[in-house]
Amino acid sequence: MKHVERIRSVTTITRRIAHSEQSNYIEVPFEMPKHAEEIVVNYVIESHGEQKAVIDLGLRDTARVRGWSGGARKAFRLGKEQSTPGYLSGDLTPGNWAVLHNAYKVPSEGCSVTVTIEFLYKIPRWLKGDLHTHSVNSDGTFTLEENAARMEELGCDFIAMTDHNTVSQNITYPRHTSVVMIPGMEFTTNFGHSNFLGVTDPIRDFRVKGQEDVNAKIAEARANGAKIVINHPHCEYCPWEWDFNVDHDWVEVWNGPFTERNVRALNWWHSQLVSGRRLVAVGGSDTHRPDPYVKHAMPCTWVYASEKTVDGILSAIGLGHVVITYAPNGPFVELNCGSYRVGDIVPAGERSREVYLQAEDLMAGDMIKLFSNIRLEKEVLVSSDGVLSIHFDAEGTTFVRAEVWRHFDEVNMTLMAALTNPIYFD
C-alpha cells in the first residue's frame, strides 16, 4: 500500500591516520552503487593520544569535488536535487567516489577516522504533496520557507510553487528542506488559469489578448519543457473560458475544499473519460494565506513515483499514477489489476480483468463507489474503521475508477474524501 520501507545499505570504513600525514589531504574511497537516490555520510574521529585530532570533511565524485565542510560538520546528505549546505546536488553517478579528509591536526600517536556511508536506493513508492500553492512572491502571505516547513510538518514529500505570472519563487526557494520544491507558475489570465510545472522559467511574458495568444503561451511553455494543467476549470470565480482543446497534460479536478466547483469539474472529467480520453486528474490546495478551510495539502495528491525528484514525480503523474485524498491522512485507495495500477492500460490480451481495490484509513460510514465508463458499478458502505478490500470484474468496461465519500461533522456535509485515476482497459 502507501507505506514502503526504503531500501538501504551501509558501508563503514576505518582509516588510521599517522602523525606523518598531518597537513595532507586523504581520500577514503568507496563505490557509488547503481540506483542510489541519496547518500548520508558521517564520521567519527578517535584520537590515539592526549592531543585532540582535527580532521576535516568533504566529498568527491567520479569527476570533481562535490562539497567541503571542513570541521564545521560531522555529517551530510547528498541527493540529486537536495543536499546539505556546502554540497552540490546532482546525479549520483555509479563508480569510484571518495570521502575527503584534511588531516589538519594529528596527534603524535595518530588517530583513526571511521566513516559511515548510508545508501538510500530508488524504489517505486507513493509520495504525497500539493501541486498548487502560493507565496509572498505573488498574492500569498506565506514565505517559501513557511510553505516548505508546513509540508514537512504534514509529512509530505513535494510542493509545487505556482505563484501567479511570476517565476521568482523558482529561484529563491529553500534548498535545505526535505520537501521536493517543484518549479512552477500559474499562468493567470482574465478568462482562466493554468499551471506550468517543472521548469524554472516557462514563458517570458504572460500577457494575452485572445485565444491565439493563449495558444502561443502554452506552446512556449511546452517547448521549454513544462507540464500543462488546466486549473479549477469550472470555478464560479475564475473558470476556464478559453478553448478546452488547448494543449494540456492534466486537469485540476479538485481545488481546495470539495465544493460545487469541484463537482462540476469531476463530472466534466468523467465525461471526458467516457468519451475515450485518458486524461489525468490532479488536485491542489490553492492555498494563499492562513484559512480555516483552505490549507496546505488539502487536497493531497499522491503519486506513485520511481524516485523522489521533480522529474520522477512529474513523470509518474504523466503515467496517471495519481490518487487524491482530502488531506495527507485521508482515506487512501489503490486499484490493481494483476500487476497494473491506476493510470495503467491493461492490454487486451490479459486473461483477467478483475480489479482489486484496497482502501485504508477508512471510517465507519464512509461510502466507496466504483465507476466505469458504463455506470456506477458498485457502492459499499464501510461498517468499521480501518481497511477494506473489494473485488470487481471489469469485463466489458474501458476504465474503472474509485471514489470515497465521507460525512464531515465540521461542516455537516457528505463530501469527497478520496479519488483515484482510472485503470484503463484496451
TrEMBL record:
<feature type="domain" description="Polymerase/histidinol phosphatase N-terminal">
    <location>
        <begin position="129"/>
        <end position="191"/>
    </location>
</feature>
<dbReference type="InterPro" id="IPR052018">
    <property type="entry name" value="PHP_domain"/>
</dbReference>
<dbReference type="InterPro" id="IPR016195">
    <property type="entry name" value="Pol/histidinol_Pase-like"/>
</dbReference>
<protein>
    <submittedName>
        <fullName>Phosphoesterase</fullName>
    </submittedName>
</protein>
<dbReference type="InterPro" id="IPR003141">
    <property type="entry name" value="Pol/His_phosphatase_N"/>
</dbReference>
